[in-house]
Predict the structure.
Amino acid sequence: MESLKPSNKMLALVMLIPLTIFCKIFQFNVLPSKYFYDSSRMLSMSTGSNTMEAWGDAYEIVSELFKKINILGYTSLQDWAYTLAFIFIFIMFFMIIRIESLDNLQLFFVFSSVGLLNIYIFNISKDVIQYGIFFLMYLVIINKKLPKILKVLLCFYIFFWESSFFRSYYILMGILFIILYILIKTVQFKVKNMNKKTILIIFIIIFVSMYALIYTSQFISYEDYERLINVRYNVPNEGAVSAINNWIDDRGSLSLYMVNYIINAVRMMFPIELLLNGPFYMPFVVYQGFILYYLVKTMGNLNKNTNEIVVLTLSSFIAYLLVSFTFEPDFGSFVRHEAATFPILHLIVLDKENYKFRRKKWKEESLIPFIE
């Protein structure tokens, strides 16, 4: 395992602005026009220029929001992109300051995140709203003055709040968050030694819970249930080279749907098939590898001494993943939306209390030799 280096933390802080500028130049001078399709539509709607046809739902919500906060009279994508980038990079500066130090892999993760966030998230977009939602959750999780139960309730409320005005399926994340929090707390105090078998059992319980949740939903709203299990057949993704198409025709069958769900979950966490579309997708595969690596390592260290930041972060991030396995139409959207979870994701990868504890345990007890 690589040693922590204080100099890496300084390098990460120093490079935030130069990397941001480079990414924005790359974004507006190299990327093709298809990458600005959604942003251009929302800009047109927010300014009233009518250069593109207005759409409803999330597009209308985002465009109205940017219309209200446009006190400087911005009329171009670049205006919003640079402003949002520097605001959120400034906030990221203080996130990283919390970290004790970084090893080389963590430093690379930070640089990768800065690149993805600046190119795909920090623009006039739907994803910047999602980033803001997870930033609110981050503020709740790291607050040392709030009692544990209040943190849990506030995190659930944030999921519920977003579902009420932006993305309705976030209520599923809220429910799964509660289930996962109870499960992880149980594992934390009942399981003495984490190993591959224990982690496998945890994931089996998680997928059974997901099955039960979807099965129950048909008795609450059968229309929503049908829309859920047929979502991949109703989302247009013809233009997406990295579309996630089901391997099995599961229309009308919940059991086959769950088989596809597990297959797609594995495909999305190990997106090796993306490389068949060319080397351009290598950064996405590497970034997903980072997330999987640190996610499994963190779970492998769960025990009664694990701090509450780790428990809350794992619960919220895994809840996000479980719902994403259902609703993400293509690999590009999945990684882009996943990058927008950086405020909580970096707590798994970088958090100083989490990493400090893990480092000590790896050295003294080698809790997860199957990864080392």
About this structure: The chain has 17 helices and no strands. The two ends are 7 Å apart (CA to CA).
